[in-house]
Amino acid sequence: MLKIEGLTASVDGKAILKGIDLVVPDGEVHAIMGPNGSGKSTLSYVLAGRDGYEVTGGSAAFDGADLLAMEPEARAAAGLFLAFQYPVELPGVNNANFLRTALNAQRRARGEAELDAVQFLKLSRAEAKRLSMPDDMLKRNVNVGFSGGEKKRNEVLQMAILRPKLAILDETDSGLDIDALKIVADGVNALRGPATSALVITHYQRLLDYIVPDRVHVLAGGRIIRSGGPELALELEASGYASVVAEAA
Amino acid sequence: MSESATLETLNAVTATPYKWGFSTDIEMDMAPKGLTEDTIRLISARKEEPAWLLAWRLEAFAVWQKMEEPDWARVKHPPIDYQDLHYYAAPKKKAGPKSLDEVDPELLRTYEKLGIPLKERAILAGVEGADGEGDRPQVAMDAVFDSVSVATTFKATLAKAGVIFCPISEAVREHPNLVQKYLGSVVPQSDNFFAALNCAVFTDGSFVYIPPGVRCPMELSTYFRINARNTGQFERTLIIADAGSYVSYLEGCTAPQRDENQLHAAVVELIAHDDAQIKYSTVQNWYPGDAEGRGGIYNFVTKRGDCRGARSKISWTQVETGSAITWKYPSCVLRGDDSVGEFYSVAVTTNYQQADTGTKMIHIGRNTRSTIVSKGISAGHSNNTYRGQVKVMPKAHGARNHTQCDSLLIGSTCGAHTVPYIESRNPTAKLEHEATTSKIAEDQLFYCRQRGLSEEDAVGLIVNGFCKDVLKELPMEFAVEAQKLLAVSLEGSVG
Amino acid sequence: MTALPRPRALQPAWSQDAAAAFVARYEGLRGRLPGDAAAREAGAAAFAARGLPGVRDEAWHFTSLRALAETRFAEPLTPVADCAAMLARLPQTDAPRLVFVDGRFRDDLSVVPQSVSVRVGGPAYATLANPDREAMVALNTMLAGDGAAIDVAAGVDGGTLLLVSLGTGTADRPVAFHPRHSVHLADGASLTLLDVVMGEGAYWHNAVLELAIGEGATLVHLRLQDESHAAFHVSTVYADVAARGTYDSFALTLGGKWARMEVHASLSGPKAVAHLNAAQLLGGSQHADFTTVITHAAPHCASRQTVKNVLTGRSRGVFQGKIEVARDAQKTDGYQMNQALLLSPDAEIDSKPELEIFADDVKCSHGATVGELDGEQLFYLRSRGVPQAEARSMLVRAFLAEALDPIAHDAGRAMLEAAVSAWWERQAP
Questions:
Q1: Closest chain A CA to residue B495
Q2: Total-model pTM
Q3: Domain boundaries defined on chain C
């Protein structure tokens, strides 16, 4: 699904990622954990293609294609979804309209038939219901006036509707209460299947109680310094990042 | 993708060439260049006007000669030589054609380019019997082709309702009492430099009268076109909604692409009596000049509505994307108690366009209310100014105004300006004004693109979202056109 | 000596006549006035060319100069009021003070500061004023007789300094004076300037202050305009704020029958900050105009403005506040709020908040509200037993608190609050 080799990247001329190697096979969920400032968010932005995040070396292949050469919308159409740490507000842009425009743009890019308004309404309502989200979330403007928790739930709703192959969750758990955390986890778990993968970026272990990862990687100083099974997350929780970082140094 | 590349895309989008630039060759009947009393006498004679109107025009001309061009707006242009313009041009008169085959093909092509449906083209071209009651028409149109209204449609349906909708020159002949009573009663001859000029030389425009208690059975629409080379356009529109009536009027414009600057100084007067409502919607897309700022229409318009009666309501909605210079302040004089004025505006400027537009809400009666929503979008090297006045007179007890002015800047070479005048002389009045300035944030664009939207679609989506509060005020027929126009005007322009 | 240019013909006769009288006064005094003759002559040339601000001058849209222009002002001679009694109204503070009476420095009434260098005895011309653009400044430059040049050295905390102006005149002999002050804070310096103007009788006070604030320096400028109710007041302040510097000002207008405060603040270095807060409390037939232009000339600067008007009687309040953002002043953060309370049926407010923006990555907004006291709030207070007059007083003070509370300087805030209280008591029916 995703194969990253020797990836280095800088922001404003400052090197943040210093050589990332990471393989996420089809159907697996990987967690990336790490202290603040370790480069977690930079990795997610680089993979999604955000301006200002300059790739200085290495490669990233997505289903064999050169991910780094693609425009952001092409990556989305190819099946990459980024759940933002800080979802962006779009004043005056209706959530449902936004999602339908996005979904149809992706379908068009993949040569699939577009959904008409009625088909989309059915789909979006069903997904909202499944995630126990109120219908009116779809009628409101994208993230405008949403609480922190609502914004994250909206990201999960978008993910459910857009059905990506690879979902990257950038600290989606931050600022969530336990109920919202479960909804996020349900959203990711519902997506799990032999042909879909997820990269869960988080600072804390607690989200991983609900989304059990196949692999856990520790990112520090722009490098993956340790990888292991789900038990690694528990170890980090117990002993803190400092000891792992010190050990690797 | 680097930031500068994004900007380039944006600039490419904003600099899209004018898509509706074309001109039509039709034999013209044209007055020589220049403006004297004789020119005015000629116009009046050609239009077979009564003596009172000629006298009224000459009075306006005398006033105009003593006036100076206003200089307070944030617009710059080379001096206009008022003696170097033609003040009268009319397509040569023809007897009513029997079918579309007899209609000047150039005229038909113009309609085709404007996207006017075939059936309506026939009606517009004055084909006899074309306005039968077959398919129920939705929109009645009075096309001002250059200065003379070529045709008027849907007369029969409107006549049944007692609605008068015709060229103002025809109204002068057929309904002289109405015209004499209302003409200049909202915008007098001495109102301002451009209005005085219009009073002196206006050639045609629309006249609407809605009788008491009548809800006009259809949207009334005029397509304005500026066509003859160097011909200033001086339309005069007069709309009267008698007690308890309702009318929605649509005005849309496109213009041929030309090198020379063209002057346009229209006057629109609206009168709403007790309980009457007038909704006036404009989509303005005249030739804005080329990417280097050459050419384009100078658009100096005086639009004013008089809420003369109690509980009357006048609502202006405008989408302004064209013209090299837009100087335009559709206003409401809220004279009647409990009357309501509204102004909803989207103004888009790109390249070297200059827009100085806004409104005036003059609260005179008790419990009068006004709402102003203005959305300015500047790109390229353009300057976009909101200028608006809210004035509460001493007797306007309980007056209310809410103003929201938002500016969006696209690129760092344009300007966005907000100049409100808030004047209150009554303590019971409550006025609120808010203004903001922002740009399309890079993170908004990225968010949309991450969800799979192309950059252009993302810009269109965000801009339409920004303008939503205004666009929703447009009648359905116009809203779609306006949304497309916004997207096209800004194609490639956001970064 | 070269002849001065003739005034523009466009002005009405009353304006031309007044301008001519000022020019004639200058021609009579030429060569006998102290200070930089070249600067003065340039000001005179600018004034003679422009005359008084005209009716078509957009900056004076709401404020007519007619009453001022139709008054013939004399030169101040001996003060005609009890200066000691007026000074007794000043806040009790041991801060040093510079006292000017009818525009002239008074050694006998002043306490010269230690940590701050002060020079008096002539106009303190600096380089920030623009006599070519502002006619009142040109007039001041032409006729200025005295002023204080205040200097705070790099890194020095200059503490608190009172700058006091007393005006005195009589109805049959109104006088005009044009003090010219400057403040220069070198890099990292700080100073709190308590700027108080008061007076008795009829006069015109036309002051110019040029404030140069160095890198990382902070000037707190607390102003109380409590001129005589027969006086005209014009003051024009130019503040230039270098990188990371702060100009933190509050201006309270209570006095004068006709007053105009104009402030031009330029944020000329990155991360400079300006606060231009003000309140105008007017009654009777007072007219007061608070006009500001904040120029964001460098990136990452912030400006904040809260302006309140409380108007009773037949008074008229004017606020014009322009925020200009230059092309390269990216990341500008500008916010302005102006609010007016109209407490009588004959009061009038004219407000013109203006944005002029040439940079795209900026956050600029302004808001304005006009209205009377909230009926529901009044009723709520009264239903809890607060008498009507007291309830109104509470709500008016609450309205003003938003502008006054942020003043960190205790003595300064106390001085302004006391002045507000005294004003409000005078309004009581």
A1: A51
A2: 0.83
A3: 374-429
